[in-house]
Here is the input.
Amino acid sequence: TATTYGSGELLLAAADAGARTIVFGVGGSATTDGGAGMLAALGARFLDVDGKPVGPGGGGLADLAEADLSGLDPRLAGIDLILASDVDNPLTGPKGAPEVYGRQKGATEADIAVLDAALARYASLLGPEQAELPGAGAAGGIGYGALVALGARFRPGIEVMLDVLGFAPALERATFVITGEGSLDAQTLHGKAPAGVAAAARAAGVEVVAVCGRLALTPEALEGAGIRRAYALLDLEPDPAVCMAEAGALLERVAESIARDFLA
Here is the structure.
């Protein structure tokens, strides 16, 4: 059963090394345990009605009767923990971690229902208000665990990266910006890199175009995100296998189109 226990061990290692600020980048996980495994590694206890530890993973939280955070490593209170994530989903519900990301982790429809109910029970004991915060549903809910129990502060991951890369000064010299993603779709609009790049560029008055493998957003949705136009490789080559095999040549054709449309 996949858990976030290892993430807790990483935080402990950072504390052992004397870290005063930790940028906790989360995403792309195989877990859906709300960060319970992480908190267990840090000293928390999650018990059933008999006072025994619940099973690992999100499913085990269905038996949760008591959440004891008194044993959390006290050093964490003195660390500035920045939760950096590219999604802003809540913990549960129609836009929550199990419903939106469970299937890509192998969960069945029945599993998703169990996980959503288990995480809701977990949140009812730790703090239901924080379950609605942006980023609570990141990485199977590890964002929630960090927010509710570790005092983390959420920052969109793309904002953190743009600061590190010096994106704002670069925009001052830019004619327009090209961003991209494998699939431009509804998830893109929930804090993914292209949306963050487009928002920053729009604020600076710089136009943005996007390059992608697959385009699943309407022109209206693109405009709302600050993307002037998107170029999809699948529009040039509809066979995904051929598209991936010949991506280089297709990208050259896209580059020619962008130059013709915006620089001619």
User: Anything to note?
Assistant: The two ends are 55 Å apart (CA to CA). DSSP finds 13 helices and eight strands in the chain.
